[in-house]
Amino acid sequence: MNGNISEIGITRDLEAMKRVGCSGFQIFQVGSGIPKGPVDYGSPEHIRLLQHTAREANRLGLEFAMHNCPGWSSSGGPWITARPEYSMQNLTWTETPVAGGQRVNVTLPRPVARLNFYRDAMVLAFPAVAGETAQPVRITSNSGPVDAKLLAGDPAGGFEIRPATDGTAFLQLEFAEPVEARSVALISAAIAADAGGRGRGGAGGGGRGSPGGGGALSIEASDDGAQFRKIADLPAGGAGGRGGGGGGGAAAAGGPQLPTTVNIPATRAKYFRLVSTEPRRVSALRVSAAPRIVNWTAKAHFTPGGGGGGRGGPAVQAAPPVEPSGPFVDPASVLDISQSMNQQGQLNWQAPAGNWIVLRIGHTTNGVENHPSPDGGGGLEVDKFSAEAYDYHFNQFFGKLLDAIAPLTSKGLAASIIDSYETGVQNWTVKFPEEFQKRRGYDLKKYMPAMFGRVVGSPQVSDRFLWDVRKTQAELMQENYYGRFQEDLHKHGMRSFIEPYSPGNFDEMPTGNYADMVMGEFWQGRAVHHSVKLVASIGHIYDKKIIGAESFTAQSKWQEHPYSLRPSGTSCTPRG
């Protein structure tokens, strides 16, 4: 408990467990608000005490099991922060319009990154939709002119709009001539009432920034800048959030932000304006002739809820979404021009005739850390798609303990746990293109623009591609995270315990097959215990002889009488 451990305390605890009939124990090293104790995490004394625990377990004949990292979710620590290439990765990108029919020599902006870690993945180009590259000649608001630089996508900057006496605020884009719009991209956040007019910087219209208020957002259009007509309502809470990229966006809390993107009925106008009934900080506003995939941030697993496993739901929509209407990106027109960019981001490319959109695509850490770790035990989460990354994590965490655990392994009394999964989704790893080709049988590059909301081929083709992406992610996480966990343990004579559920990139049922003992959980005072039936089903399907359960979990600080626990146990036992 956050360094509050001692040799005599360990011995007395284990002897008491043996005395009352316990057959083993599981070690979770947590902080969880507990005052820091005298033993520093990772110090020689800390390692010595864990080795002492293993020796005492062997002396007493108790099973020694240990969570596979500090905290209870999921697999990470300071050693991953030291090697961010082994952390959970998300895509990040920039879009650059270029005119073809000539040799293009331009510097492609480096996509934004977290913790200053970035690696290029590929550079792609595809034909721009007619009118897509048009930029507003003037940006104004109900309080006056707006510097376009403030709308470059940085949530730490942005521009504040505040309602006037009529109860509305607006941000207006004026074009040199009428343009056709089929989608709107927005990064904004409601300004909290206690923010003193500064706002708090939000994510994708809400996300993890300041809480969205009860105000309304809409997009309007005008031919003359005087008479405006409402085109569509926008989700005030946002469908974006923190993610791994955003068409040239910038960093907030050290990382990129995703825009809220909404399709609108095809509208041709010279003026477009965002209208809000509450104060907002707007970091990006763009209208585009290109439609977007509905709920693409979730389908591409920048945010949970893409249908690839777990229980995440789709982003909440303000109204039924407008389905995308052409023109769409032809997959045959997507060109891989990676070899035309040097390491400094300079593009030297003989571009075919026409206007093109160039995507510089890379990946960065998604910044998620293990929790609730003890002081000094926190760090980035390991890449769930990489067996190499998990091997590194395993060796860093268990390396100095394996000799002390060895006598227990010969008796079948050593194990490790991956608790319920609570560290979100990722959508990339270095070897993802090769794994996708091997598993799905085609090159993903022709369809990669769909990862950033572009409709490739058709809405149906794009959805099928994104399903293939999520399926590949699920297989990689199941094999290279849960499967590798079990494999590494078996190499050292240890068993794997897994709670294979909660929203993530994996499919719960096949994940449970990588457990030597699959486990569920039930909490005191909660009526729904879905995991108990889930793991019982996994046991039947994959012939698991023993089903475990994290039982009677509560936050009542030991105030429950044993009699009050009985109904939960009585209810969950027959479920499996």
What secondary-structure arrangement, pairings included, does this model have?
Layout: H1 7-19, E1 24-27, H2 44-60, E2 63-67, H3 78-81, E3 89-99, E4 102-107, E5 119-127, E6 138-141, E7 144-145, E8 159-161, E9 169-190, E10 217-222, E11 228-234, E12 241-242, E13 251-252, E14 255-258, E15 260-276, E16 280-288, H4 296-299, E17 335-336, E18 346-351, E19 355-365, H5 387-398, H6 402-409, E20 414-418, H7 432-440, H8 459-491, E21 495-498, H9 508-512, E22 517-523, H10 530-542, E23 547-553, H11 562-572
Helix pairs in contact: 1-2, 2-6, 5-8, 7-8
Summarize the structure.
By secondary structure, the protein is of the alpha+beta class. It has eleven helices and 23 strands. The strands form five sheets. Strands 6, 7, 8, 9, 10, 11, 15 and 16 form an eight-stranded antiparallel β-sheet that branches.
Low-confidence stretches: 196-212, 238-253, 307-318
Helix percent reads 10-25%
Structural class, by secondary structure, is alpha+beta
Question: What is the CATH C level class of the largest domain, in words?
Answer: Alpha Beta
Biggest sheet details:
8 strands, antiparallel
